[in-house]
């Protein structure tokens, strides 16, 4: 009979060793920092050695921790490969993601090559339509919402960085277009207009522009295409128009940038937390969202 501590205790150690942080390990495992601390203390008591020390730059592995971490990681990898070798092929290695359409097209798609190269064993299914008949097949979803909304089960990916842009044809002799001379393009979310123009005008100190005027669209792509055609001025998250800014097909009206209050969050259903494919995607998202 093997004399091993609980596998969950070892999994907690692996997460803390990988992140070098109790907080990040707690977020990854969806438990409290206190629970992480208790598990590590119990493992240290079991082994009779200290595994981590706190320093000015955070957690550092002791010699014992450094000796244990790679072997434990390899052991979990071998267990995972052994299970995959005997698992009947099914949907468990297909990662199903629900995401806003413009975010999926303009932010996620250009970055997916890196994920697929790193994790070729995971097949992705990205959709913008909720399947109410089979909700259990959804592994995670990306939520667009205002800061402070929602629950603590959400993990922030990135806040929007709004800038006002226009087609270069609206710049006359190098002068920025007058905000009162062109339609303001607005985005609707769940039937309500996002207050991106109001926030941007407040940041610039402009009170002479009617933020209620202009044209409303149901998707951000419609706003972008209208702005590209010179049909108006738009306040857009610069992360959604990286190609247009790089090519010069959309030009910032001023350098003013407003961060938030809207952003994108990752939410994982309770029964999907801890799955390897979900954790890999979440860790990858955390890295590419904060380069």
Automatic annotation (TrEMBL):
Q: What Gene3D superfamilies does the database record attribute to this sequence? A: Periplasmic binding protein-like II, Winged helix-like DNA-binding domain superfamily/Winged helix DNA-binding domain
Instruction: Output the SUPFAM superfamilies linked to this UniProt entry.
Output: Periplasmic binding protein-like II, Winged helix' DNA-binding domain
Instruction: Tell me where in this chain the HTH lysR-type domain is found.
Output: 5-62
Q: Kindly name one Pfam family recorded for this protein.
A: LysR_substrate
Classify the source by domain of life. Bacteria
Record keyword Transcription regulation present: yes
Give UniProt keywords alphabetically.
DNA-binding, Transcription, Transcription regulation
Query: InterPro entries, alphabetically?
Result: LysR-type_TF_proteobact-type (IPR058163), LysR_HTH_N (IPR000847), LysR_subst-bd (IPR005119), WH-like_DNA-bd_sf (IPR036388), WH_DNA-bd_sf (IPR036390)
- Membership in a protein family: Belongs to the LysR transcriptional regulatory family.
Name assigned to this protein: LysR substrate-binding domain-containing protein
């Amino acid at each position: 009979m093997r004399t091993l501590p609980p596998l969950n205790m070892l999994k907690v150690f692996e997460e803390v060793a990988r992140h070098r942080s109790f907080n990040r390990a707690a977020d990854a495992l969806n438990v409290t920092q206190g629970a992480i601390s208790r598990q590590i203390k119990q493992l240290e008591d079991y082994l009779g050695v200290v595994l981590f020390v706190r320093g000015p730059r955070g957690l550092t592995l002791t010699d014992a921790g450094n000796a244990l971490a790679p072997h434990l990681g390899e052991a979990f990898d071998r267990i995972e490969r052994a299970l995959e070798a005997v698992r009947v092929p099914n949907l468990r290695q297909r990662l199903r993601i629900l995401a806003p359409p413009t975010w999926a097209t303009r932010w996620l798609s250009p970055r997916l090559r890196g994920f697929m190269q790193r994790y070729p064993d995971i097949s992705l299914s990205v959709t913008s339509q909720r399947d109410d008949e089979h909700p259990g097949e959804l592994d995670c979803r990306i939520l667009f919402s205002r800061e402070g909304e929602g629950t603590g089960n959400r993990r922030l990916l990135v806040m929007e960085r709004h800038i006002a842009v226009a087609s270069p044809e609206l710049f006359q002799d190098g002068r920025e277009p007058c905000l009162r001379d062109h339609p303001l393009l607005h985005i609707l979310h769940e039937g309500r207009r996002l207050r991106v123009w109001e926030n941007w005008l407040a940041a610039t100190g402009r009170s002479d522009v009617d933020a209620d005027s202009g044209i409303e669209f149901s998707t951000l792509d419609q706003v972008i295409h209208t702005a590209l055609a010179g049909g108006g001025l738009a306040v857009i998250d610069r992360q959604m128009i990286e190609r247009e800014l790089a090519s010069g097909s959309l030009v910032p009206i001023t350098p003013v940038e407003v961060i938030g209050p809207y952003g994108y969050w990752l939410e994982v259903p309770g029964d999907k937390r801890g799955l390897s494919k979900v954790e890999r995607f979440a860790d990858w998202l955390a890295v590419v969202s904060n380069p």
